[in-house]
């Protein structure tokens, strides 16, 4: 079988797998939200903790299976690994305790793709960008809050002791408000904070650019409408002049 044909069949197989796995993985990402947040915000019995821990491992195992299947179906496997570092990180997450919540980024990737496809069909580009920005901000805020809570809650001298504290810190940081009443005291917490600060600055830039682009597009529509109106008026005036000239020719002096 020619190599090009093999490459095309492998690509088709990978595309079919990703299309079939997209919704189940989205559901699992949402379930992971529950698995991670519930123990952080509620006092649950020991048996519930065990159930959630088992669910956490099961969800991770499904992500491992998904990555292995896509790697197996990929026509160029080393290229697949290089082009999907985040997916590899999601598989290695259990060994990176402060970054366990990074699996939330799977939800972000799927929601962005779905929003973009939906935007091409029914929405304007600006609405698609707004969907992307909103999904990014929400997921990044939760991710940072969970990571900060996991890192700082047992730190000596720390002031982020509850998930509510971490969520408040994340909200004030991502919006660049920075009240300073909650702040990290560990090296890992400061690294998470620096990442969220950079994201917040980039987010504000995207929002400003999107609003500016929306106004420019609205003004362009108004200008095009005025140009069409002027062109129509010019045509009407030309017709009136031509009609008057004909009448002048027919009416004797």
In short:
About 80% of the residues lie in helices and about 0% in strands. It is an all-alpha fold and about 250 residues long.
Low-confidence stretches: 95-101
Q: Give the tally of structural domains.
A: 2
Shape: elongated
* Whole-angstrom Rg: 28 Å
Beta-strand share of residues: under 5%
Number of strands: 0
Overall pLDDT level: 76
N- to C-terminal distance: 91 Å
Q: Please summarize the sheet with the most strands.
A: none
> Which CATH-level-2 architecture of the largest domain?
Orthogonal Bundle
Kindly provide the name of the CATH class of the largest domain. Answer: Mainly Alpha
CATH topological fold name of the largest domain: Helix Hairpins
Strand-pairing-aware structural class: mainly alpha
Number of helices: 8
Helix content: over 70%
